[in-house]
């Protein structure tokens, strides 16, 4: 049986004739079958074997892309032409995409192999991957626990070595939180760094596409490939695409901010001690540790859930049974068709968020909730702007606890929402954040550490993460 190899090792072995790419893809396909109980994939593409033959020919000819032979899974909210695009929802269960998302196309253009589409919380709404019409995903480290969400399938696939890397999306922590729970690297780029064209929108001013991998080098390489301006997405940035992989290694010493608000009540003792131990090692290695304050942090969760549910209620209005997706049978009126299609097609959590969003946007409540939340969002962004005048990077826990048991939080939405307490702020501010696996607790469960930097300063995150 083949052992798992990172992209660079694999590429060298293929060049030298020591490894067949078809054999390597078969290895992953077999791993997916052997670990089907994890339920990490909604769809697996057997034609990836044929793609492996084509790319191996390109590798041996010396004319190949940056990701040649890298086997990548993509979250099932990202479009891939002629393949299912379900968002793990019954309302889109039989829908096939008419085009390919820009980020996915960039992977394909650099000769990556897309092996399948991963399970996720329905429409990316959830923190545990228990809200999927395709069933829950299990954490590969401990099958009795959640993998995190909403990109739980992508995180689990990488952690279980079912692929080299995966794409996920992050609206409030949906890459970083499952990366923490599954013990892998996960990067949420700056808002606008990666085109959102072809991403099924949840909350358009929050959503970001980013990679999961088992090494920082692979995270950097994928980010390098998927970044850049896209004429199909007016919110994508014209910021220079950095050759991250060429300047990862550095002797630079960083000023690292430790916000007191992220180390208070609710943080698990083992998580706290592991993070603080990592801070001490950074100090020993010559980095400067600075105690800082992000004074509006207590309003993060409330602000986040007002704004994202408002955007979700607007974005999901298109799923009404009229033009595509699920349509309820034998409804006597058009209004009944809308109501029944949405009632039957959407799951409980999606309906909850649509209702919350409709409420905060409604007459009489708009000023009290939505407009006030927008003002607080600006204050939160100002907190980060002020902090980055003092420090290069901010260091926090990624999650307040390790992965929780399946069903432990699912009956209490507020408890579930609080699992994102350390990650939502980066989405509110539009800044990049990364999860770094830094240890395990006494039960052997992964502990993650989060680094955040100013807008378009992903290189600082990657360089500091590489020192770990």
Number of helices: 15
The order of strands across the largest sheet is 1-3-2-4-6-5-10-11-9-7-8
CATH class: Alpha Beta
Shape category: globular
Which CATH architecture would you pick? Alpha-Beta Complex
Total count of domains: 1
Examine the coordinates and then state which fold CATH places here, giving the name of the CATH topology: Amidase signature (AS) enzymes
Question: What is the β-strand count?
Answer: 11
- Unreliable runs, pLDDT <50, ≥5 residues? none
Strand content of the residues, in percent? 5-15%
Helix and strand string, N-terminal first? HHEHEHEHEHEEHEHEHHHHEHHEEH
Rg from C-alpha positions?
Answer: 21 Å
Can you walk through the features of this model?
Helix 4 (102-109) links the parallel strand 2 (71-75) and strand 3. The protein starts with 6 loop residues before the first helix and ends with a helix. The protein contains 15 helices and eleven strands. The chain has helices spanning 7-15, 21-34, 48-61, 102-109, 152-159, 176-182, 216-226, 269-284, 300-315, 334-345, 348-361, 366-388, 413-417, 424-429, 458-466; strands spanning 41-44, 71-75, 113-118, 165-170, 185-188, 208-213, 255-259, 288-292, 393-397, 433-440, 446-453. It has a single domain, classed as Amidase signature (AS) domain (Amidase signature (AS) enzymes). With 468 residues, the protein is α/β, with parallel strands linked by helices. 37% of the residues lie in helices and 13% in strands.
């Amino acid at each position: 049986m083949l052992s798992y190899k990172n992209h660079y090792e694999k590429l060298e072995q293929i060049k030298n004739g020591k490894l067949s790419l078809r054999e390597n893809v078969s290895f992953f396909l077999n791993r997916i079958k052997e670990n089907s109980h994890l339920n990490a994939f909604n769809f697996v593409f057997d034609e990836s074997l044929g793609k492996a033959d084509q790319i191996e020919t390109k590798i041996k000819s010396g004319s190949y892309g940056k990701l040649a032979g890298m086997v990548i899974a993509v979250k099932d909210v990202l479009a891939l032409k002629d393949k299912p695009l379900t968002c793990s929802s019954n309302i889109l269960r039989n829908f096939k995409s008419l085009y390919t998302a820009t980020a996915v196309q960039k992977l394909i253009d650099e000769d990556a192999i897309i092996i399948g589409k991963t399970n996720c919380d329905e429409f990316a709404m959830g923190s545990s991957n228990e809200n999927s019409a395709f069933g829950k995903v299990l954490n590969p480290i401990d099958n009795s626990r959640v993998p995190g969400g909403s990109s739980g399938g992508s995180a689990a696939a990488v952690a279980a070595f079912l692929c080299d890397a995966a794409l996920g999306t992050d609206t409030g922590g949906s890459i970083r939180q499952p990366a923490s729970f599954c013990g892998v690297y996960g990067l949420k780029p700056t808002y606008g760094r990666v085109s959102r064209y072809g991403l099924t929108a949840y909350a358009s001013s929050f959503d970001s596409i980013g990679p999961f991998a088992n090494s920082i080098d692979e995270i950097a390489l994928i980010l390098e490939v998927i970044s850049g301006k896209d004429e199909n997405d007016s919110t994508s940035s014209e910021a220079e695409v950095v050759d991250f992989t060429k300047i990862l290694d550095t002797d630079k010493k960083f000023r690292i901010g430790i916000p007191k608000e992220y180390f208070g009540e609710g943080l698990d003792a083992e998580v706290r001690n592991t993070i603080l131990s990592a801070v001490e090692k950074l100090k020993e290695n010559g980095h400067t540790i600075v105690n800082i304050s992000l004074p509006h942090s207590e309003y993060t969760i409330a602000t986040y859930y007002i704004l994202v549910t408002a955007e979700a209620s607007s974005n999901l209005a298109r799923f009404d049974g009229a033009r595509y997706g699920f349509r309820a049978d034998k409804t006597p009126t058009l209004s009944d068709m809308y109501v029944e299609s949405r009632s039957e097609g959407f799951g409980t959590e999606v309906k909850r968020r649509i209702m919350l969003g409709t409420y905060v946007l409604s007459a009489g409540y708009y000023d009290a909730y939505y407009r006030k939340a927008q003002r607080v969002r600006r204050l939160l962004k100002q907190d980060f702007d002020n902090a980055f005048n003092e420090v290069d990077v901010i260091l926090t826990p990624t999650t307040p606890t390790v992965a929780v048991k399946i069903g432990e939080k699912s009956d209490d939405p507020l408890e579930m929402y609080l699992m994102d307490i350390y990650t939502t702020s980066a989405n509110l501010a539009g800044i990049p954040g990364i999860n770094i696996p830094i240890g395990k607790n006494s039960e052997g469960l992964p502990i993650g550490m989060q680094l955040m930097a100013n807008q378009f300063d992903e290189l600082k995150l990657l360089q500091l993460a590489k020192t770990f």
